[in-house]
From TrEMBL:
It holds the Pfam family Peripla_BP_6. This is ABC transporter substrate-binding protein. Residues 27-46 are annotated as: Disordered. Residues 1-24 form the signal peptide.
């Protein structure tokens, strides 16, 4: 079923935005999709199909914070090209680093759309998507982007990796509000008996605002909520850890940066805090956990991640195995790479459908606008785009869940297509 996670965009990026000083459902893709094509005949169009990828590869929050989707998409296109491309045509990728600024983003959008004449944007992952209105007005499909802001619930022709039910008529969501479900909190309550949840934040506006959103969702699910706030400049995580132990918290959610999370975990280990789960998000679902939390082994092994895509460690799944084979040269792996790979696959499916009449912006956009329950051949939970006049009051939503275990990495917890709950949809603003 389609789903929209509660406060998804904020969950993925708000903590990262604090980082001025930060440390760095469907079928398998047929083998024929990657088979060599016959050499193009003179009547065939053999010119490359040009796509653009905009990434905040350099930004105030660190060079590697946003590059996962880009790397996954490029890996897909490289393998596709090695096996014949789309109807004999290569995919030519034009990249642009917007530097994490709105000005830089507008510059990238102008260059790719107006100068490079790309057919589509793929796997957009940027800190400030200021160029979104220009993309929409040019009717350039933006496929599989990460919703780090409200753009994918605001503008037509933009198709985020998790879908949207909003009108997308230039106004965000419904009357400026977006809606999301409480399935993450329902999962830990129903599957693991959690009853007390702590939310840790900085005394900084964006961090505190996100913490309030998490608290709202937790309370809607009947949790006793413990709020913990630390000074942004001089955070006392030891005091937080001591109170977590005193309050007997089952779960810990946070609105702090990656470095702060590691320090929080170290303090929790030092204080002997044991929790059912230290819950993180898809952006932190990476193979670097062993190093990032090297001084907090107990807390490290209590890390859980939730998302909307199939665990990159599930190599028994054919689609994941294809991804891992193509990226075996990567130093690290991440869930965002999987989602970038899925975005590139989505564009490829659209381009193949358009090949007989010509791969144009309009044709690719028409394919995308008809997308219903798209799964990237099993890598994503079903994604759909509708334009509902009113926000849904409740929905059946599913989620992918994994737990970190030393020696095994991220271990999936059940089938993401069956880990589903009927949950309320709550309003929020970014």
């Amino acid at each position: 079923m389609p789903r929209r996670r509660l406060f998804r965009a904020a969950e993925v990026v708000l903590a990262v935005l604090l980082l001025a000083p930060a440390t760095a459902c469907g079928s398998r893709l047929p083998e024929s999709d990657f088979e060599h094509r016959e050499r193009a005949t003179p009547a065939q169009d053999a010119t490359p199909i040009r796509v653009g990828i905009v990434t905040s590869a350099t930004s105030p929050v660190g060079g590697s914070a946003f590059t996962g989707p880009r790397d996954g998409a490029k890996a897909y296109f490289e393998r596709l090209n090695a096996r014949g491309g789309v109807d004999g045509r290569r995919i030519e990728v034009r990249e642009c680093d917007d530097g994490g600024s709105g000005v830089g983003d507008n510059t990238c959008v102008h260059r790719l759309i107006d100068e490079d004449k790309v057919v589509a944007l793929v796997a957009t992952t940027v800190l400030d998507y200021a160029g979104a209105p220009r993309v929409s007005h040019a009717r350039v499909p933006d496929i599989g982007g990460q919703p780090l802001g409200a753009a994918y619930d605001t503008w037509p022709h933009l198709y985020g990796i998790y879908g949207s039910l909003a009108p997308r008529d230039g106004t965000t969501g419904w009357n400026g509000k977006q809606y999301g479900g409480t399935e993450v909190y329902r999962y830990f309550k129903r599957e693991h008996g959690a009853r007390t949840a702590a939310v840790v934040s900085y005394n900084q506006a964006a961090s505190a605002a996100y913490a309030r959103l998490v608290e709202q969702g937790l309370r809607a699910e009947g949790y006793r909520v413990v709020t913990e706030q630390v000074d942004f400049a001089l955070p006392n995580f030891r005091a937080v850890a001591a109170d977590l132990k005193e309050q007997k918290a089952d779960l810990v959610f946070d609105a702090v940066d990656s470095h702060g999370n590691a320090r929080l975990c170290e303090a929790m280990d030092a204080a002997g805090v044991e929790v059912t789960a230290k819950v993180t998000n898809v952006q932190n679902w990476t193979s670097t956990v062993q190093d990032d939390y090297k001084d907090a082994p107990r807390c490290r092994n209590a890390l859980w991640a939730t998302g909307s895509s199939r665990n990159y460690e599930d190599v028994g799944d054919p689609a994941v195995r294809e991804f891992r084979d193509a990226t075996k040269g990567f130093e690290t792996h991440s869930q965002w790479q999987v989602e970038g790979w899925a975005a590139a696959m989505w564009f490829t499916d659209a381009a193949k459908s358009c090949a007989p009449q010509g791969v144009t912006r309009a044709c690719v956009d028409a394919f995308m606008s008809r997308s219903q329950d798209y799964t990237a051949h099993g890598l994503l939970l079903p994604v759909r785009f509708e334009r509902l006049a009113d926000p849904p009051g409740s929905r059946r939503t599913c989620l992918s869940v994994a737990r970190w275990q030393d020696g095994h990495g991220w271990v999936s917890q059940g089938d993401m297509n069956r880990t589903c709950f009927d949950v309320p949809q709550l309003p929020y603003q970014q």
